[in-house]
Amino acid sequence: MKSTRKVVGFITCIVLLILNSGIVSASEITTGKEIVEDVKVQNPEEFYNISSSDTLKSVTSMTRGASKPTSTWNIANSGQYDFDFSVRAGNSVYSGYNFTGTTSAVLYINAAPTGSYTEAEYTVKIYRNEFGFDDEIGSFVKNTSNDQNYQINLSNLNSSHKYYFRIWPNGDAGLSGHGYWKN
User: Fold this and answer.
1) How far, rounded to the nearest angstrom, does the alpha carbon of residue 132 sit from its chain's CA centroid?
2) Of residues 126, 116, 123, the one with CA closest to residue 143
3) Are residues 60 and 11 in the same domain?
4) Are the C-beta atoms of 96 and 178 separated by less than 8 Å?
5) In the β-sheet with 149-155, what is the strand arrangement from edge to edge?
């Protein structure tokens, strides 16, 4: 009877833990939550500058449409990920990869409206992708008139977790630009 109570008590604790806080790993308990902060870039040239000492990678077009990335880019092994993007109104664009291998990262975006529009509001969301579940860790709404050059600093990341981002215009204007993800 005592062993049955222990088993029921243990199962109840596990169920409550999962329902109240999601699936928690030991590394999340010790490192805490990811910290995501946005920074307005004053001098964009210094942020999108690849020097000869950097590992040069070809610029990758991001996956378009409603599909999350399935491939992984290990920042520690492969270095900085550079990208170009273009997205029409009503659509979104995802990073081409899940990023892993670092405890801190910088996502830099330079965005401009397409067509005859002079400004565009857009949203950037950053997700942690673990076991097929997405956990949004940051969401920012920006306007190209104020935030054409935009940087997001991420810290306290778990280097074995996978992170990706998604960008979409909020109005009638499309959006195009470039950027990078690096540690």
Assistant:
1) 15
2) 123
3) no
4) no
5) 35-40, 149-155, 105-113, 175-182, 81-87, 60-61
Regions in the chain scoring below 50 on pLDDT: 13, 15-32, 41-65
Tell me the pLDDT tens digit for each residue of 32-46.
Answer: 466 777 555 444 433
- For position 25, what pLDDT does the model report? 30
Q: What are phi and psi of 147, to 5 degrees?
A: -130, 50
Residue 4 and residue 56 share a domain: no
The reply to whether 41 and 63 lie within a common domain is: yes
My answer on whether 48 and 132 are in the same domain is: yes
Q: Are residues 57 and 43 in the same domain?
A: yes
Give the length of the chain.
Answer: 183
Burial class of 112 by CB neighbour count within 10 A (0 to 12, 13 to 18, 19+): middle
Q: Please count the structural domains in the chain.
A: 2
Q: Whose CA is closest to 100, among 77, 125, 133?
A: 77
CA triple 169-68-19, angle to 5 deg: 105
Q: Which domain holds residue 6?
A: 1-31
Q: Taking a C-beta distance cutoff of 8 angstroms, is the pair 125, 86 a contact?
A: no
